[in-house]
# Entry
Amino acid sequence: MNAPLSAAGVRYVAKNMRLDLRLIAEMVAPGSRVLDIGCGDGTLLDHLYRTRGCDARGIEIDMAEVTRAVTHGLPVMHGDADSDLAQYPDGAFDYVILSRTLQAVERPREVLRQMLRIGERAIVSFPNFAHWPLRWQLLWRGRMPMTSVWSRPWYETPNIHPCTIRDFFVLCGEEGYRVERWLAVDDAGQRSPWRRFVGLANLFGEQALFLLRKV
Amino acid sequence: MDSAPPPTDHQHIVFTDGLALECGVTLQRLVVAYRTYGRLNAERSNAVLVCHALTGDQYAAETNPVTGKPGWWDTVVGPGRPIDTDRLFVICANVLGGCMGSTGPRSPRDDDAGTPWGTDFPPVTIRDMVRAQKRLVDHLGIRRLFAVIGGSMGGMQALDWAAAYPEAVFAAVPIATAAHHSAQNIAFHEVGRQAIFADPDWQDGRYWETDKVPARGLAVARMAAHITYLSEQALTRKFGRRLRAGPTGGLSLFGDIFEVESYLQYQGSTFVRRFDANSYLTITRAMDFFDLAAEYGGDLSKAFAGTRTRFCLVSFSSDWLFPTTESRAVARALNRAAANVSFVEINSDKGHDAFLLDEPDFHRTLAGFLAGCAEHAGLPS
# Structure
């Protein structure tokens, strides 16, 4: 699945952004209304506003990040995915984004439902728990995996709902979501050559990114 | 004891066509006292209305002519400050019902110019205050305010402005406030009012006839209110249990007094020199009656239906008078209206008063929000 090539300027601005944010930005149509859940200091919001003319807003749970975002003039409110999404009216946004947060929410399935209620489309990125180094560590050492992405020990990780790419496909099927696009990237940010095969992506993909729509 | 403040000639505008109030009474003559800071640009697009709190006034960013003290928001409004008067034109008006030049209980009656209204002054609401400000803003030839900003009761006005005149408010910053006055807040106000009523010098509100002011009652009202503006941590940090020698000294019951007592007494005694008791009654009542959702069938989001105003809600972690939960309720109502809303709780131990004090995170938030809005509004930098 090829992401549309963006203008050179966009790539330059995006260079310092987290890989998954860069890939997400490429999925968002210019001029759309966007809600970014767990937006951190608002890097993606700023990028979407400046390069794509989006009306981009954010929710963030960490107050220091909220303050930093608002200080930079970005429309960010303190709140969390589990309790604040229910407030928004149906279809308030074109895209609702949840980047690397799904695994940390209380009720991932409900959060996804809310995202596709308040938004036309949902963009979800998450770290893939079936990535081979994790499988290897669990198989070989018999311990909970620790990598640069899964960097906190089991007793203090905020990532209470890890899932794999296959798990996510199954959930989308059960919930009746159409996967409009998906991609997996390895730790170097490369997408080929295994990108079209779910089994290989589930083994070699460190992160996954899905663009969903209700059927 | 203390006497009433000497009358000061405040800058003002008179609207001879009066103002119809929500209670049904029409004031025949409306006076709005105000101050401005900075310069209105040629497009008239850089105007900011700053709304003051219960005991504030229009002297936001200059020496107060009555008290001789710096303006109440000197740290926030001014050149290079968060509300930057090098770039913005700031208007601050004394509220309707106030005692610093705008029409209020101390103004002459409509039917008898020789007598002040006193407690016969009609009950005014936050909406009435906003309408009076709108008259001033219209008079200044400003069709759309770049921002309406206020803390506490000023925040109520900012919310009400956004609800009543959505097209005239590009950005709203309600700070340390709520969409209605809580039962606890009304209760504290009632304590203050009863203290005023209990003062024999109040004389059913006709104290001007004997050239007195209900200084003791008003001072007690101020002391009780002042406690609600601070946090327990702030009181402990500033005063703890420290004692100082009282006026009688020695080992009598009130010989030594706690520093916190002395501080409150000072707050009370300075307040009566600048504030009118009947104004205090009028304005506290306006706050008590404020319930924005009630105006819109009980659903606060309906007050903001279809709004294009950009909101920034700010609360302070130790504010128990207008706690963060109140701001969050407003934020959620704005979410239901799909409004553009920023919402920050500033970490502070200074209680409700934090919005008036030096809080760098708050000041950075306000400046950043306004800078972002200026970009969206196409305001020349």
Observations:
- Confidence is low (pLDDT under 50) at residues 1-15 of chain A.
